[in-house]
Amino acid sequence: MGKQATEMLKGTLEGIVLAILSGQPAYGYEITAWLREQGFSDIAEGTIYALLVRVEQRGLVDVEKVPSEKGPPRKVYSLNAQGREYLEEFWRTWSFLAERLEQLREGGK
Fold first, then answer.
1. Which pTM value belongs to this model?
2. E strands in the chain
3. Are the C-beta atoms of 15 and 87 separated by less than 8 Å?
4. For residue 9, which of 31, 45, 40 has the smallest C-alpha distance?
């Protein structure tokens, strides 16, 4: 991923992670692995963990500690009602921006 893509991703990563969690609960490494499989190879695991701490503090996710075969319990994150509302707003904003950018690309029509 180039620098421009990385910068754009920073502004949308929270919404992307919440969208992943809307499908199923997951822990940090699972989210990072999925993103890398989707081509977001430059994302550091620490970036995802910091983001998960922020969305937890803001009350957008619920957290459950699940025993792990290797080491301490894992924190599994799931989207709660407040997180779903936030994600809906994210998608509305995304649609608005995407429409306007497409208009600009087509010459302002």
1. 0.88
2. 26-27, 61-66, 74-79
3. yes
4. 40
